[in-house]
Amino acid sequence: MADVIGPRLYSCCNCRNHVALHDDVISKAFQGRNGRAFLFSHAMNIATGPKEDRQLMTGLHTVADVYCSDCREVLGWKYERAYEETQKYKEGKFILEKSKIIKENW
C-alpha cells in the first residue's frame, strides 16, 4: 500500500508556515514586486495590511499586502477591488510571490 501523502502546499520561505494549497493556484503567469508571482483563489495563515490604491501593470487596483501570520514576512497582496471590467476576476484573490514561498509535500 502506498504511503498517504498530504496535499501539495506552499509555505512561507522564512518560517515554513503553510500559506496556500497547490490546488488553489489559478495562474503562475503573474508579476510581483520582485519577479514571478502566482495568483491563488485562497490563502491561509496570513494577515492583511491596510487597503490602498495601487497602479499595477494591469491598471488601478485596491490591494492589501498579505503577511505570514507567524513571522510577518510580506508574501504578496490581496486584490480587494479592480477598477477595470476586464480585471474584476482578480477581486478577492491573492498574489504570492514565487521568491517568498516554498513547495511542501511535492
TrEMBL record:
<comment type="similarity">
    <text>Belongs to the yippee family.</text>
</comment>
<dbReference type="Pfam" id="PF03226">
    <property type="entry name" value="Yippee-Mis18"/>
</dbReference>
<keyword id="KW-0862">Zinc</keyword>
<keyword id="KW-0479">Metal-binding</keyword>
<dbReference type="InterPro" id="IPR039058">
    <property type="entry name" value="Yippee_fam"/>
</dbReference>
<dbReference type="GO" id="GO:0046872">
    <property type="term" value="F:metal ion binding"/>
</dbReference>
<feature type="domain" description="Yippee">
    <location>
        <begin position="8"/>
        <end position="105"/>
    </location>
</feature>
<protein>
    <recommendedName>
        <fullName>Protein yippee-like</fullName>
    </recommendedName>
</protein>
<dbReference type="InterPro" id="IPR034751">
    <property type="entry name" value="Yippee"/>
</dbReference>
<dbReference type="InterPro" id="IPR004910">
    <property type="entry name" value="Yippee/Mis18/Cereblon"/>
</dbReference>
